[in-house]
Design a protein that fits this description.
single chain; 220 residues; two-stranded antiparallel ribbon; 7 helices; 2 strands; globular; mainly alpha
């Protein structure tokens, strides 16, 4: 059904989802969430290994193709998305009651756990998610030969579907849609996946710093 190019972008995402489901199942079986916190490190390690296995298939990432202006736009976009992310938190904008990721033990922060969490969220997750949502899904909706489709030619239908699905992947569904729209427009405008990856990385990295400073663990 899918080509190697497609599977290279799908499998890292599926690995990530597998660990989310596994943690949920283990929690339902009675294992304390505190005992499952290091599953995040295993998840990131597994995703990173999958990305490394398929690296030769990610031709759009083999060279940095952003100029100074495009890089600056991506950085600013990432910051703006962060501001909106922590603001769009009214009750009707949230799905479920997220447990979040609390790196504290006995009231003290485990800084190694924080470092792994922020590094994973800022360096691995953006690559994995942008490869799936932007590089694959949005273009695949328009064409089976998605890897040949110029990002600037992605249809409005594909953008809307991708943004909505990306939004509902997150507990903060509206914030997720805003982020998805911002990253999608960057990808289409700059015609570079590095643009959306960079913005996504800035958002996730700064969000991690904000969470640690404020103690709002549910945002993780």
């Amino acid at each position: 059904m899918f080509s190697r190019a497609a599977w290279a972008r799908i499998l890292p995402f599926l690995v990530y989802i597998f660990f989310i489901i596994a943690v949920d199942v283990l929690a339902r079986l009675g294992i304390e969430l505190q005992a499952l916190r290091w599953m995040y490190a295993l998840k990131i390690g597994a995703v990173l290994a999958t990305l490394a296995w398929f690296w030769r298939d990610y031709t759009e990432l083999h060279s940095w193709d952003l100029g100074l202006t495009a890089t600056a736009v991506a950085l600013v976009t990432g910051v703006l998305v962060l501001v909106l992310w922590v603001s769009l938190d009214a009750s009707w904008m949230v799905i479920g009651a997220p447990d979040g990721f609390n790196p504290t033990t006995g009231g003290r922060i485990d800084w190694l756990m924080v470092a792994v969490r922020i590094a994973g969220a800022a360096l691995v997750v953006p690559v994995m998610e942008e490869l799936f949502w932007r590089s694959f899904l949005m273009r695949w909706i328009d064409s089976d030969s998605f890897h040949l489709l110029d990002p600037a030619q992605i249809s409005l239908k594909s953008v809307v579907i991708g943004v909505v699905l990306f939004g509902f992947e997150h507990n903060l569904w509206l914030a997720g849609m805003v982020a998805g729209a911002a990253y999608s427009l960057l990808y289409m405008k700059q015609r570079s996946l590095w643009s959306s990856i960079l913005a996504h990385a800035v958002t996730n990295g700064l969000l991690g710093v904000w969470i640690v400073r404020t103690g709002n663990w549910t945002y993780w």
